[in-house]
Amino acid sequence: MTHEPVPLDRAVKNLISESALVFDGLTRLSTSVQDAARAYRSALIKCVRDMDSGNDLSDVVKASVALLHLCEILYFSTASTLLPYAFGAWVQEHYGSLELEELDDAFLQLQSHVSLDTSDDDATYWPTIIQLVISGHGRKAWELLSRTTSTLHSKYAPSLASLRHLLVHMPTTASDASFNWTAWNDAILHLLQNDPLALSDAHIRLLLELLSGQHLDQHARSWHQQVVAKCLFEDPKAHLSAPTTGRRIVQRLEAAFQSTLPPFEQIVLLLLQYDLTSALEHIHGLSAGSTRFYSLL
Q1: Could you tell me if 223 and 260 are in contact, meaning their C-beta atoms sit under 8 angstroms apart?
Q2: Among candidates 91, 87, 62, which has minimal Cα distance to 73?
Q3: pLDDT cut 90: percent of the chain above it
Q4: CA dihedral sign, ordered 54, 60, 62, 63
Q5: Whether residue 74 is found in the same domain as residue 103
Q6: In this structure, are residues 26 and 40 in contact, taking their beta carbons and an 8 Å threshold?
Q7: Is there a single domain that holds both residue 66 and residue 26?
Q8: How many Cβ atoms from other residues are within 10 Å of residue 178's Cβ?
């Protein structure tokens, strides 16, 4: 008795066709490895978008996109963005996109109506500002704050100017080696120790403490948000080698989990340690019984 092969999804057929062109370019040396990786990832992303809803292969392709993207950052990137910030951007893209969409919606809703008279009545005001800060959106956090601090301006004008500068110029997932983390962090510590507004207003003090790297585990709503915040607010130590920086990120990743890392995150950990051989072995083990995941990578 013969079995008819399961027909391939059209999106998968297109992926196979586009992938063949990418790898053919590599064999002919007409395409750099970096360009080929980017082109292959674009083909994978297009496959996910075009795939039929409910397709079991969708999660496999998404995982392949994420791991390939991380390999691009670790092995092929020529961007000036520092690794902790680049990894933070990777985490937000592949883990936190839904959270960021919800946070942006909350920001827009508050932006449309918040004022000095309404901020205390809106239970989402301070939580939204805190989440914006933790996620690296200091400009948006200041925009909401600036709408409710007019009565403080005459008495605390220097304090508010300093706070604005810290939020607007805080590290983001796009920051590079030109960012002076030491000066920025020193300014935070100075305000915490000496500023009258920071010493008298619990909300402002909490924001400064978050910027200094305190309480992140208490206010982050997910392990990946906590990892991003630590990548943003802790010293990036730009002078360190990539493998050493990768090991520092591994420590943050491990600390964010209360138990053993899940299989996929273990692969991420190995890649951050630049142990590509072990990472591929884990990928092969994860795809035991099916070659789909392994073959996509």
Answers
A1: no
A2: 87
A3: 62
A4: positive
A5: no
A6: no
A7: yes
A8: 8
Q: Per DSSP, what are the bridge partners of residue 81? A: 176
pLDDT, residue 15, reads 84
pLDDT score, position 127:
96
* The one-letter amino acid at 142: W
CA distance 254 to 261: 7
- What is residue 266's predicted lDDT score, i.e. its pLDDT? 95
Task: Name residue 56's amino acid.
Answer: D
**Where does a domain end: 198, 219, 240?**
219
How confident is the model over 29-54, as pLDDT tens digits?
767 888 888 999 999 999 988 887 76
pLDDT score recorded for residue 3: 52
Structure tokens that stand for 121 in this block: 């009545």
Mean pLDDT value of segment 206-231: 96
Who's near 268: CB < 8 A, 6+ residues apart? 67, 70, 253
Q: Are residues 136 and 211 in the same domain?
A: yes
Our count of domains for the chain comes to: 2
User: Residues 136, 146: contact at Cβ < 8 Å?
Assistant: no
Domain boundary among 180, 200, 219: 219
pLDDT tens digits, one per residue of 68-124: 999 999 998 877 789 999 999 999 999 999 999 999 999 999 988 887 665 556 789
Q: Closest Cα partner for 163 from 110, 204, 196, 210?
A: 204
Domain identity same for 73 and 101: no
List the domain range (segments joined by +) for residue 210.
97-219
Q: Which residue has the tokens 């939580």?
A: 127
Say whether both 154 and 214 belong to one domain.
Answer: yes
Tell me whether residue 44 is in a domain: yes
